[in-house]
Amino acid sequence: MTAPNQNYAKLNDSYLFYNISKKVAAYNSAHPDKHLYRLGIGDVSLPLPEVVIKALHEAVDDQAEKQTFHGYMPECGAPFLRKAIAAHYNKRGIHIEENEVFVSSGASDELGDILDLFDKRNTALIMEPAYPAYVDANIMAGRKIIRLPSGIENGFLPEPPQNTQADIIYICSPNNPTGAVFDREKLQKWVDFANKNGSVIIFDAAYEAFIEDSALPRSIFEIEGARTCAIEICSLSKTAGFTGTRLGYTIIPKELKRHNMSFNDMWVRNRTTKTNGVSYIIQKGAAAVFTPEGEEQIKANIGVYKNNAKMIMNALDKVGIWYTGGKNSPYVWMKVPDNFDSWGFFDYLLNEAGIIGTPGAGFGGCGEGFFRFSAFGDPEDTKEAAKRLTGLVYSD
Question: Considering the domain 6-48+294-390, what is its CATH architecture?
Answer without folding.
Answer: Alpha-Beta Complex (3.90)
